[in-house]
Write a structure and sequence with these properties.
By secondary structure, the chain is of the alpha/beta class. The protein folds into two domains: 143 residues, Alpha-Beta Complex (Aspartate Aminotransferase, domain 1); 232 residues, 3-Layer(aba) Sandwich (Aspartate Aminotransferase, domain 2), CATH 3.40.640.10. The protein is 38% helix and 19% strand. A seven-stranded mixed beta sheet has the order 4-12-11-10-7-5-6, with helices on both faces. The chain has a four-stranded mixed beta sheet with strand order 1-2-3-15. A four-stranded antiparallel beta sheet has the order 13-14-17-16. α3 packs across α10. The longest helix is centred in the last third of the chain and has 22 residues. It is globular, with a radius of gyration of 21 Å. It binds pyridoxal-5'-phosphate. Pyridoxal-5'-phosphate (PLP) binds next to α4.
Amino acid sequence: MDKDLDLHLIHTYNRSVVFDHGEGVYLVDTNGKKYLDMGAGIAVSALGYSDEEYKQGLKDQIDKLIHVSNLYYTEPVIRAAEYLSKVSGMDRVFFTNSGTEAIEGALKLARKYAYLKNPDSRGEIIAMNQSFHGRSMGALSVTGTEHYRTPFEPLIGGVSFATYNDLESVREKVTDDTCAILLETVQGEGGIYPATEEFIKGIRELCDEKDIALILDEIQCGMGRTGTYFAYEHYGVKPDIMTSAKALGCGMPVGAFAAVEKFAEAMVPGDHGTTYGGNPLAGAAVCKVFEIFEKKKIVEHVSEISAYFFDGLNRLKEKYPEQITAVRGKGLLIGVEVKNPPADYVKKAMEKGLILLTAGQNVIRMTPPLVMEKEQIDICLSILDEIFHSK
Ligand SMILES: Cc1ncc(COP(=O)(O)O)c(C=O)c1O
């Protein structure tokens, strides 16, 4: 990479390509090379690139009103909250600029609920090992990956970590001061691990028994990605507080935390706020996303296409057992566990015009646009076949 490109950017990413524009499920770089995108901006661009209706929705809102303070109502934001409440089963929504901020808000809400019950509560939070919830001090405090955390300590106190999919390990951590149990319904960055039914139902019961908040992070696994609007629908379990972002805006920076009334009412004016979070432009993006999802039956499409993709990946696993150790995930949130470093595959794929991601230590991650069709999945599978073959 040309050294000058990084000259004025703090070096927090190993970037490789300069992208120019997007068309459907392809990105195009400044040299005109096309890439089939199996990352979608890390589970963001569910509608792919350059969707006419989405772009028009944003343009119309830009012409009307881009921003007013959250001291006032706007129609797009009211409608966006209504959409999200309806599909999530929550009662009230707070819009943020990012997933990280949605986590911050969710933690504050759980602590406020506990504080109202008992002002001496220490507001302890149980989170999971190998989880990822963001990089701010609060979100990092509940992120169970040591190397992200250590250089930035001391973080917020009162957080302990249990083992994902091990109910007993969660039970052991619960004290009279616990105010919330936080988990991703499907762990994303940690390596694409869906929760087991027993685990998630057990945690729901535990939270009910102790009157503490079950917070489900649906930032990566939500918004249709697993074949239901939110991944918790697969389990017949409803959280008290949930977080969303990424595909919620399909490219416009917007996130949200939402809660059932019992928890939501703990927050009152002055408790939380944001200047930009959920401004009218972000609200219009959310409304457009939901409208297009309904019109194009995106969530149903994910279930159909996912089975096809998994079949193809499992065939590759049978063909290359010395390289592929597991294929797992839900819908179009897919992990291919490999024995060699996953970054090697990502690099090779990039040369061949295929964008892949990594997760955890040994997983190739795929979070494609949800509008991906069978023909494009065939192209992806054939490039993967070439790469595994050449290893
Ligand atoms: C599960 C989960 N939670 C939280 C976040 C943080 O979201 P953001 O990057 O929008 O702040 C991410 C981002 O990857 C995520 O995957």
